[in-house]
Amino acid sequence: MLIAKVVLPIRLHQIFDYIVPDNLCTIVGVGQRIKVPFGNRQAIGIIISLSKDSEFELDKLKTIHSIIDNQTLFSAKIWQLLNWAANYYHYPLGEVLFHALPILLRQGKLAALQETQIWQLTEKGRHFDTQLLSRSIKQQALLNLLQADQPVDNQDFTPAIFKGLQDKQLIEKVAISSITNDWRIDFQPQHMPFQLNQQQHTAINEIVRQLDKFTAFLLEGVTGSGKTEVYLQAIQSVLAQGRQALVLVPEIGLTPQTIKRFQQRFNVPIVVLHSAMSDKARLSAWLQCRTGDIAIVIGTRSALFTPFSNLGMIIVDEEHDGSFKQQEGWRYHARDLAILRAKIEQIPIVLGSATPSLETLNNAYNQRYRHLLLSERAGNAQLAKQTILDIKGLVLTAGLSQPLIAKIKQHLANNNQVMLFLNRRGFSPLLICHDCGWIAECPRCDRPFTYHQKQHKLICHHCDTPRTIPTQCPKCGSTHLVPIGFGTEQLEQQLNILFPTIPVTRIDRDSTRKKGSLDQYLQAIGKGGKHILVGTQILAKGHHFPDVTLVGIVDVDGALFSSDFRATERFAQIYMQVSGRAGRENKTGEVILQTYHPEHPLLNNLLHNGYSAFAKQTLAERKSTLLPPFSYQALIHAADRNNQYAPQLLQKIVDWLHTYHSDPSLWLLGPSPANQPKKAGYYRWQLLLQHGQRAKLQAILSELVIMIEKWPEAKNSRWSIDVDPIDGW
């Protein structure tokens, strides 16, 4: 009798045995999806092994209902990656395997290309004069792209635009089952219009020499040094071999300019994986990558698990960005798993950043990675002048001091653009009663609501709960409710008052929610002329603003004083990324940083010595205090609604560790309330484990997970393990 060992997408570290019926024995295999009875329902599982034996009595085993796939969904290399990841992050294998699949495959749909439809020009559309569409700018732009045989990003055009051209009989829908032309046959190396400097030449040559084996590269380049051009030319060498490339980016909506550069450079199929894709489109892309029809995949962290027929290179852009770390459920780090995938595939991986993470820099300093430096700005652009502005005693208007306002006027008078950075969205972070001091708080999180004036709402920035703004204080009845503090919305309003004739664009999570809105803002700014940009850290994420000559950092003091040992690293990265937006090409830039603490050593080290000196000093401090990357951590979270079982569970873990693992190298911190003690109605607790040896910490966690799943406290609370945490909870 054949027994299938099966995992299901459930939060249990458990493998289930099912009998394989005789009619399926010859076609069943590892990595296939199957339908099985589970409790009183039918579930989809994945076979992880086959055996002739079971530790359970055979008459108690259920039988597989049917097989969905006639072959495995996972290549041997992806299978190895996912099994390793499940073990390392101590997350159930079933959840990990299903996470790596498109949603439709998780639901049991067939892994086969469905007939899809694309838009193409009609005979009339090929010869139509687009000037006749001048009253519909979007229709005109779309037809221009199609006539020029340029790639069309569906995010740029609504369905109504396509329908309008269809009604005019200029375009039509045609059915295709998949991409019909092999891009390898048509691929031609593109002429390189860019004049490379010597450092770019060296970096490209170093990478290209390693195309046939695993090598990890750190490409460290100051903002504006031309890292993207290095990516493009390295990928061109990969494509010339008929191989595919994977480019991971922190957030897909924040990099439309980079994506367009890829699309303009290469005459090959490129797919951009993002959250706005339909489930059908995502499955189609997944299948076409597996067959080799797609040449380049650009996507966020989950794109790492895309199957390829012949992967030749992985690039992780902005490798330091915290978005690569999953913060819910399976808390994997896409950058770290990308390095493992490159090693398994025996291909090079390039980690790019102007401000590399200290873990990555440490690996480069220890020669685990090859360190490629781009210290010169492309086109010989000069680095910006940086100034610390002491605002003690100065009158501030929505956070702006008079010296900064004067600088804004000066740069605008020269027909340049200004960027103001404030990492706090909304109008005000507090709504308070002027008479009794009552503060509007979210009852689910015990944290103040943020006042959003444009939406006329109070919104909790922790759980997104909205509330209408009260007309009077619920405590004393006063109608004198005032917003305290300022955010990007208030800053935008004040700038419109100060500069009524200058366009002001706010770029933050609130203003870019609408599909395609960010791209529209960037296009408007890219037209040049006087303009003021206001935004949060979205502005730091790789955008090209050639006309920005002044960057003002409005408020940073909150980031300078934190109990989180990573806070200084994050601040340094954001500061260097934001300040790098000032002065590109032939324009000299200026950066002004407002602070109440101008003597702060971190600020002065960054300004006078740069990120590299800061990183080396910080690594030395972490080494002396045995903090990562010179030790290894795991953060155990627990939460419940009554604030009882979660702390009990973590205390039970501490007691168990003291009893069974009295290792002097194991350091415990907690149990303690989480950084945000309450969120969405749950009371949250945490326990930090730290050890000098990764293997020993892993062994402890493996034993611990088995114990936790047996304890009643775990069944009455939500718990999880975050290996290599980068944030508190």
Automatic annotation (TrEMBL):
This is Replication restart protein PriA. Binds 2 zinc ions per subunit. One of its GO terms (biological process) is DNA replication initiation. Residues 468-627 form the Helicase C-terminal domain. Zn(2+) 2 binds at residues 442, 445, 460, 463. Residues 208-374 form the Helicase ATP-binding domain. It comes from Frischella perrara. Its EC number is 5.6.2.4. InterPro entries: DEAD/DEAH_box_helicase_dom, Helicase_ATP-bd, Helicase_C-like, P-loop_NTPase, PriA, PriA_3primeBD, PriA_3primeBD_sf, PriA_C. Pfam families: DEAD, Helicase_C, PriA_3primeBD, PriA_C, Zn_ribbon_PriA. Its cofactor is Zn(2+).
